[in-house]
Records
---
Amino acid sequence: MLNKLHAPNLGLLLLRIALGACVIFHGIAKIKGGIGGVKGMLSGAGLPEFIGYGVYLGEFIAPIMIILGIFTRFASLILIGTCFTILYLAFSDNIFELLAKTGGLKAEIVYLYLGGAFCLLFSGGGKFVIKAD
């Protein structure tokens, strides 16, 4: 029975939609509220603030590309870079810190985004894309 559910291209489409939809809301928040917080974290880490404008690429443009299937591997690579930057800036004190109430990782959402982005980097967007890799 489970063999009838073998539809890897549908699975990749659903992964693209879910991953892109979750990440894009972070980008929309940055568009609406600005990137002052990001610039502050960069400055605190001794990095130039202008790098903060890359958040629009990583949290808004790349998710759109992922959802639509436009150069999915490249967009996933951008998202991976964004996630590693977030881990460095926001969680570098302890990237595997556990939450006391739930026992989950403090940065677990970033790790989920990384997992999805790595899957798409290695597999591509599948059959249902606008522009294949």
Note: Residues 97 and 106 are 6 Å apart (CA to CA).
---
Amino acid sequence: MKLTKAPGYIDGGQILLDGRDLVPLNDEEMRLARLAEIALVTQSAMNALNPVMRIEDQIFDGLIDHGIKDSKENLRNHVYDLLRRVGLRENVGKMYPHELSGGMKQRVAIATGTSMNPKVIVADEPTSALDVVVQRQVMMTLSRVQRDTGAAVILIGHDMGLVAQFADRIGVMYAGKLVDIGTVEQIIEDPKHPYTKLLINSVPDLEEKRERLTGIPGIPPPLVDLPPGCVFAPRCPSVEDVCNELQPADTDVGDNRHVMCHLFDPDVTMAGSEVG
């Protein structure tokens, strides 16, 4: 989305959308790409909505800003279609954000983000601070919109159970690195990276009685001062000397499964740890 403010910056690499690199785009080019090609649904819809504007006017604003020229009546009908698509009534368009519940605000954010049928929807913790029932309603809404529009959805979240219900593939990220990538079944049923294993093990099992919750000892490293080797080495139960010295490579372990860990790198010899 290129919304990072200073002192943050893009250090390198590419952001490819339909073969076009978004990184070199200037502010105006990127502004036009947002909403039309790639949209963001934030984790805090309240902060994303203007408290002194009616809902329909906020959606109008994005459409008009992207050059959509039509009569007020046609624009309003389009907004009503968007609201109905996310399970809201037309009269919500006349309301202000403070008149809506948390779940309704999140649905408005989805309606706004998909108002121009983008190719990619980035959903950043879209159910944060919502109760379990509303979480599922919002995710079902997002799934329905994804099917209706044909857009790809990048779902960012920390709730592995929720992600597993709605995603096709999962990328586990630690300290800015994608350390484990695979299908939902591969990640959940056969976690490879030590962090993935600990992450899944920390999720409470309702059928199993535990004396205490299982956590992951230690804290993530500051992104401005990453360790020289593997970023997870200080917290890893399988750590060896090479882990503190050499950054692991992205290793394809078969079936389009990728793991960033020395345990799976055929070019690295581990003394005492076993793969599995």
Note: The first strand starts at residue 16 and ends at 17.
